[in-house]
Amino acid sequence: MTSLLSGRGLVKRYGAAYALAGVDIDIAAGEVIAIVGPSGSGKTSLLHVLAGILRSDEGVITLGGQRVDQLSETKRSELRRTEFGFVFQSGMLVAELTAEENVALPLLLGGRDRAMAIDTARTWLGRLGLAGKEARRPGELSGGEAQRVAIARAIAHRPKVIFADEPTGALDTKTGHATIGALVEAAKETGAAVIVVTHDREIAAMMPRTVAIRDGKIEQPVAA
Amino acid sequence: MNPLQLALRVLRVDRRTQVSTVLTALGVAVATGLVLLLTSLPYATQARAERTLWQHPTGFTESGGQVSFASSDDQVDGQVITRVDVAPLVDPADLDLPPGIDRLPAPGEMLQSPELAHLASTMPASELSDRFGAKPAGLLGEDALMFPEQLVLLVGHTPDTMPANAYQLPELAAGVAQPDGLLTLLAGVGVVVLLVPSLVLVASASRLTAARRERRLAALRLAGATPAQVTSMVAAETGLAAVLGAVLGVAISPVLHSLATWVPWGGGTWFAQDFILPWPIVVLVAVAVPVLVVGAAVAGLRRVVNTPLMAAGGHTSKPLNKGRLLIVPAAVLLFFLTLSMAKDSSAALLPLLASLGFLMWSPTIVGPWVTSALGGFFTKVWRKPSALLAGRRLRDDPKAAYRASAGVVLAVFAGSMALTLMPSLESEAGYYSAYRDSVLYLSTDAERAPAIVDEVDDRLERYGLAARAAQVGEVQLKQGEEYLQGYVVSCANAEVLLPVSLDCETEPAVYAPSGAALETVSYSTESTPDGGASEKLAPLGVTPVAASTDVVLIDPSLLPAGTELSNVDIAVPADGKSRESARTALLAASGGAQVISKEMKLGEQNSELADLRRVTVIGLVTASVLGGLSAAIATAGSVMDRRRTFGALMAAGTPVHTLARALRAEAALPALVATVGAGALGTVVGVGLFGLVSESVPVFSPWLAAPIVLGALVAVLAASVCSPALKRVRAEPLADE
């Protein structure tokens, strides 16, 4: 298996406490994995370090064979904007914007023109079952719908990796499963790898591969 | 746990509440300080008027007075000198003297203000001290001065050496001192113009925690708290900051007062004690401002008190009624209606002021609608995310977006009005005189005139000036049934002194617009049975030479004997530096008569306009800074409200500067639009008000662009906080809330 995103010896400290205490992890192109663990185990820190939101104190991260852990903040921002997509717990959508505008926003901020950005947004909203709801505001959508808008926003620019941090945390079980299903299906269409951080064992069980983490260390590889 | 304890607990643990409390307290402090300063202005002018009642007494008596009194204004190097001539009519020991004057100067002596004494000691006598015609005998105390640097002198006389225009006073400082009406009016306008942005600043500060507080209170309501309990909690939270702010405002008010003493008004600066307010007023303001702030905070709770679920779950704002648009045209119409009434009758002044107040209030109704419409426009035509974000934000909560600019709108409105009025009034200012602009002159009577001319000429020669004084008598003339103004002056002097162009005859002559026969007119001192005065005519007996002049010029030798002169002027032509010496010669020779010159008349007008311009600029700048701070805090609050979303966008790789650019546009647009609108409305009102006092065409100066500049200033201030606020958001953990 050729690794798309790789972390070696990752260490992240907060004062004297270790959030990551030497983590090795590889994710292949198009692979879907779940990172599971109890609260405070380091799973969100691992996701943030791999995505370049946080800088690790030690260790090496490569994307497509290129080191990315030594990049400047500007370069890492550019990497996150172009190569990665993000889905957060409660969508974190801009309340004043409509669904299609929320999806189009990262494209617009990246310099795409209005027509192209809105067109792409509408396409992805349609694929995620939100056709007809493009003009609704986040406050007018259900929790599951809002998360699907967030997925559309994460995938609209066709990233190589999608990072999802507790994407079902605010949803009921049924809606949560449907949302994860939508995320995995969408990623499959674009060939993106998906890394889902969750504390929900049922959600993790839906993934082909699960990595468990405890006290900042990979506990055991769990086969699919 | 009582509401105050709850408020203190929240304050102890929540950093954002701490920031909000500090900013609210600062806003209240600024508001309290400004209100205390503006309230003190009428008291300050009253204090000035009481100290200087002896210079400008308002009471006089026909007989039995304590003193004979005359006053005149003089000037040196553009500064006004107030001269008071006085002669005791009773035993000096029985005189009632005002504070700052410990004794009346003896005849031939004078008391000077310290600044005048200093100036007189540094200038040549021919340019200043000679004109006083008296020996320095002491200084006037501070309590007798209008302002610290006032140039004033009190000259002692015997009754028979007093100037011709002297009159009797029951005491030296007779009458009732009145505060400066214009400054009192401006202070009233200032309270409105500056209090509004101060309160907007308070509102913006408390808005920083509004969303979180609303959720907390909604949770408390859902948990069973009564509306009264929730209201008490908010009153305690806001009251804590407001009381702290009011105390701070009272504490900083001496600093504001001491700054205000440096701002000239009416020719000079102020004494520190001018601004001392009676303590009941201080207490009233210190109580009223926090009460107002707490009242506003409680009023803002209506939503959470009525429907806690809606507050807890967010809300959708209702579109604003288009009917709001009618308010401004209605207010403008009403204003011009009352304006036309005020042109005909001064009794309509109150309705005019009321309609002006209505007009000033109208933008607060129309502003949110325009803001919403602007937002709607941007959401339709946007090409960049900045326009989209701004448009949606404006459309969603236009009242809040407009509120941040409301204070500036009011200030810009008042400023534009003043900036339209002032250049127009300045264009009206001018010097209208029968003499050429270079001439200085004084008025006296025919009896004293020859001696004054001799004395003036003697002094002019001593000062090395070639110019000489000339008498110009005034006489009324009749030509058929038409009355004409005549000047008794030689042709040679007329050519130098009057704005006429003549071909002088070799012999004494009369020059008139037409050659018909003329008669001089005198009036009987005995009244006719119907109460009038009978005319006595004396033919000139000389055929006038036709000349291109509006008035009749009569050589003194041709004036019929016994003709009554209505006035006699002593005039001296002088240019450049010789003007101060010519002024000195005229004043010294006349014993304190009023000398009139172009620079003095223009100086008075310019001084008043400069005062107005100064307070307008100070008011505008203060309001703009306050407005800018409000807008900046509102912007920071808006970023904080959406911190999780922005945090997520930045985590997803959106550069801070890209997001900041979008937010800057969002913050700047309402301020810019609102100030342009307010500027236009203020200009219209300024034009209307100018029409009340003049029929001339208003002058539009480049200063009218100031509102745009101020709008930009506010926008820049507001926008400047976007980047640091976003950087702060980026530094926070993504899940923090």
Automatic annotation (TrEMBL), chain A:
GO terms for cellular component: plasma membrane. Residues 5-224 form the ABC transporter domain. GO terms for molecular function: ATP binding; ATP hydrolysis activity; transmembrane transporter activity. Keywords: ATP-binding, Nucleotide-binding, Transport. The keyword Transport applies. CDD domains: ABC_MJ0796_LolCDE_FtsE. It holds the Pfam family ABC_tran. The keyword Transport applies. This is Putative ABC transport system ATP-binding protein. It comes from Actinophytocola algeriensis.
TrEMBL record, chain B:
It is found in: Cell membrane. It is a multi-pass membrane protein. The keyword Transmembrane applies. Keywords: Cell membrane, Membrane, Transmembrane, Transmembrane helix. InterPro entries: ABC3_permease_C (IPR003838). The chain crosses the membrane at residues 21-44, 185-209, 230-256, 276-302, 323-342, 348-379, 400-422, 617-640, 667-692, 704-726. GO terms for cellular component: plasma membrane. It holds the Pfam family FtsX. Residues 191-308, 620-733 form the ABC3 transporter permease C-terminal domain. This is MFS family permease. It comes from Actinophytocola algeriensis.
